[in-house]
Design goal:
The structure is a single chain. Helix content is 79%, strand content 0%. It contains 8 helices and no strands. Helix 4 packs parallel to helix 7. It starts with a helix and ends with a helix.
Length: 151
């Protein structure tokens, strides 16, 4: 995908600000294509919604860094842990249901990108703030309850 090439160019320009520079380049490129309302298939490919999903991945990185610094403060928020488990579970269920109903007629970014963003961000928060990992029993319980729900 071309966003990896843009990220490589951004790394050559500035290692420290490469992710932000890449986000800016991607936003300009895909925004320009979207605003042009072109029907050109090649340009449509470069303006596809998966580019926005890549931007969400970069955003997860920055949020994870921010969370790591503030983990002790976030650990004191009583409602955060159950809310994280609930958001991850709801996003997983939504991914399965939207797959069955063929996306509800919504764009891929909404049906796949945002739930995936919530799952990854929730998993990172649970690991960094509450030390919940795949070795921990709570993740097993979440996975098994999701499997029961699917059954």
């Amino acid at each position: 995908m071309y966003f990896y090439a843009l990220f490589a160019v951004a790394l050559l320009i500035s290692r420290r600000h490469a992710p932000l520079l890449c986000c800016a380049l991607l936003a300009i490129a895909s925004g320009s294509i979207w605003l042009s309302r072109t029907e050109n298939a090649a340009l449509g490919f470069y303006g596809a919604s998966i580019v926005l999903e890549f931007l969400l991945g970069i955003y997860v990185y920055y949020l994870a860094e921010w969370i790591s610094v503030r983990a002790r403060v976030l650990r004191g928020v009583r409602w955060l842990k159950p809310a994280l488990f609930a958001s991850v579970l709801i996003a997983l269920v939504f991914l399965v249901v939207q797959e069955i109903w063929e996306g509800f007629g919504l764009p891929r970014f909404i049906c796949g990108g945002l739930p995936s963003f919530l799952i990854v961000l929730g998993a990172i928060l649970l690991e960094r703030v509450y030390n919940v990992s795949a070795k921990n029993g709570s993740v097993f319980l979440l996975g098994s309850s999701f499997q029961v729900l699917l059954y």
